């Protein structure tokens, strides 16, 4: 269990992490999601006692990180796959970590085997590919057989095979009842692995919700209709109390799951339909909607109107509210 | 988390990188070889020396003449032991494993200083005996007054130079910046300040000039240094303590 309370980090004028309060619960995979520069890595560094919070508090199983006896046995972290001395062999890198926490050297062989690096255990880490470096970093996280594991963007820059491996590893670790806290800037990646979601943008909490709730609240379903008799169809729909939006060309979009009703209406009025298909907006779109205002580096200059987000917005309720707020801000 | 665990870990770290071997190896070889060479030159040119030079000739100190160059390798050793952690990003992995930063730094320093002293003592004795062999008839004996102190002092001097460099590197973090300040300081600036009469009196209190007093057995004829060999070493220890405290305070406060 990791508890954050009003965790704040300021660099000069810039609020990197702004009053974050949430709990990473045991036994599930919690996805930590946010655009680049949202403060994910800073938050994780503060969890490990590497960066000092400007304000607020973070506790691991009720204790501050630096009060943990042999911390690698509580929490294993992969923050940066390159955070190791390249001139040291994989075995010695893990050995020095193991010794500092009183972990037997036999465990080094075990984790090297788990991540599939036994064959290159005596090779220097600087000759490793990104994927191998990532595996070595994960071996270091697993070393103390901890109940909590933390991964910062573990699939970044990996090939499909490596991504597949990490996904399966995280799932099997969660099945063993461990707490997994994994950050990503890709919603699609989280949808595959996480049970719970914590979304931040510009250092602020945007959502703290279960994956199922997030999907339900954020995946907009609508019906796409194409018809050569678009004007008449619009009249018919309007008369039936259904609002349709023009989506370019002959295409109309109707929110909600009313495909049957629309089909029957069209038949009654002898209207030709070229397409009538229920659609589901992707989670990626939902995530982008949620974080659109807080993306730090926009590719274009017309930033959306700022809205007054209360610091430490209450969890759960905020997800839908945020999407709505954004849409209002745009219209 | 016990200090013994961290000491073992730091020992694994220090023995598993190539830079340890080549910096300490170079420090030993340069100090011994250059000391022997200069001792040989003194013996061959003895007849050219003035009366004053002959009276203040110090066979022990002469055999340590290689120290001025060999200490540069010792500085590189000290700087790399600490700054390697920062330049590679290993510091974040290290501090996640050992979050008690005071323990972390103390154990790292203890291991590195212990190793530097071991290399120093071998180097010091080798430089002394080889130097005396080269000096032939002008040599001194390890049993003469003050000589053993000077030889042991040579090992202490090398250890303190390494520790001072570790403290500076802990403050500055960057290996290039640390070396860029320490190397010219010990190789050039300290010597220049010591040679110019206006700054001579201040330069005597610089760590290397004060510390190297411990390796002298014969007091120069016109000596007016206000401290003895142990006094000089104490001044050097003072510098080292300040550098290490600075490194500790910054490590404690900074984000990794």
Automatic annotation (TrEMBL), chain A:
Region feature (Disordered): 298-331
Transport among keywords: yes
Boundaries of every ABC transporter domain copy: 2-227
Keywords (A to Z) from UniProt: ATP-binding, Nucleotide-binding, Transport
Keyword check for Heme: no
CDD domains in alphabetical order: ABC_BcrA_bacitracin_resist
Composition skew (Low complexity), residue ranges: 304-323
GO MF annotation, one: ATP hydrolysis activity
Stored InterPro entries: AAA+_ATPase, ABC_transporter-like_ATP-bd, P-loop_NTPase
Gene3D superfamilies tied to this protein: P-loop containing nucleotide triphosphate hydrolases
Family recorded in the similarity comment: Belongs to the ABC transporter superfamily.
Descriptive protein name: ABC transporter ATP-binding protein
Organism in which the protein naturally occurs: Streptomyces lacrimifluminis
TrEMBL record, chain B:
Membrane-crossing residue ranges in chain numbering: 21-42, 62-82, 103-130, 150-172, 179-198, 230-251
PANTHER family to which the protein is assigned, alphabetical: INTEGRAL MEMBRANE PROTEIN-RELATED, MEMBRANE PROTEIN
Annotated keywords: Membrane, Transmembrane, Transmembrane helix
Source organism per UniProt: Streptomyces lacrimifluminis
The protein, known as: ABC transporter
